[in-house]
TrEMBL record:
Peptidase M24 domain location: 1-151
Residue ranges annotated for the Peptidase M24 C-terminal domain, each copy included: 161-224
PANTHER family named in the record: XAA-PRO AMINOPEPTIDASE 1, XAA-PRO AMINOPEPTIDASE 2
Pfam families xref list: Peptidase_M24, Peptidase_M24_C
Protein family: Belongs to the peptidase M24B family.
Name of the protein in its database record: XPP2 aminopeptidase
Lineage: Eukaryota, Metazoa, Chordata, Craniata, Vertebrata
Gene3D superfamilies, alphabetized: Creatinase/methionine aminopeptidase superfamily
GO MF annotation: an example: aminopeptidase activity
Keywords recorded for this protein, A-Z: Aminopeptidase, Hydrolase, Protease
InterPro entries per record: Creatinase/aminopeptidase-like, Pept_M24, Peptidase_M24_C, X-Pro_aminopeptidase_P
Length: 224
């Protein structure tokens, strides 16, 4: 059912889960210290070559936009194509927005931050989602959504401030769906650095809560 980018469940469309399909989890909650909106796509069996390549290219787009360094007051629309480039390279695309503002205990989709033509320029301190995807009608859907904080980038020249993103969604990606041969060395280094942050922040909290099974899953899922 996730082959539809904006699917709404109904009693007539429910199906039994199996290990032979892709699953898309669009999750979130509202807490006193913030709002979450995180999407992950997983496959518990043997993905097809197309599923694996499409997922990897969606992940590449997520990484390319997340690690981008750009001038301050740049409109989100100007950098949005970085999330689509890896898909465009093989003639694929997605028909939804690349991200939206995230409210602090407010709206899950908070205007005017985001990557559409009517969004305001990006500034340090803004929270936005970064969520490229790919959908094949009747077959499968992929989306990888993280929440990112806009921060000042450390650049060699200090003439004018530049910006970048810092991911605050500390959730691993599905190793079963990643084709490492498609990733560049820079993308792999970024992924390893992100996984180190996940281990450092989430691991001790899982241990504090005595969630040993979740801790072991985290360690396995964040291996270099």
């Amino acid at each position: 059912n996730a082959a539809l980018a904006h699917y709404s469940p109904s009693n007539g469309s429910s199906r039994t889960l199996s290990a032979g399909e892709m699953y898309l989890f669009d999750t979130g909650g509202q807490y006193l210290d913030g709002t979450t909106d995180i999407t992950r796509t997983v496959h518990w069996g043997e993905p097809t070559p197309l599923q694996k390549e499409a997922y990897t290219r969606v992940l590449m787009g997520n990484i390319d936009l997340s690690r981008l360094v750009f001038p301050s007051n740049t409109a989100g629309r100007t950098v949005e194509s970085f999330a689509r480039r890896a898909l465009w390279d093989i003639g694929l695309n997605y028909g939804h927005g690349t991200g939206h503002g995230i409210g602090n205990f407010l709206s899950v989709h908070e205007w005017p931050v985001g990557f559409q033509s009517n969004n305001v320029p990006l500034e340090a301190g803004m929270f936005t989602s970064i969520e490229p995807g790919y959908y094949r009608d009747g077959e499968f859907g992929i989306r990888i959504e993280d929440i990112a904080l806009v921060v000042e980038a450390q650049t060699e020249s200090a003439e004018k401030p530049f910006l970048t993103f810092e991911l605050v969604s500390l959730v691993p990606y599905d190793r079963n769906l990643i084709d490492l041969s498609l990733l560049s060395p820079e993308q792999i280094r970024y992924l390893n650095s992100h996984y180190e942050r996940i281990r450092a922040h989430v691991g001790p909290e899982l241990r504090r809560q005595r969630l040993e099974e979740a801790y072991e899953w985290l360690q396995e899922s964040t291996q270099p």
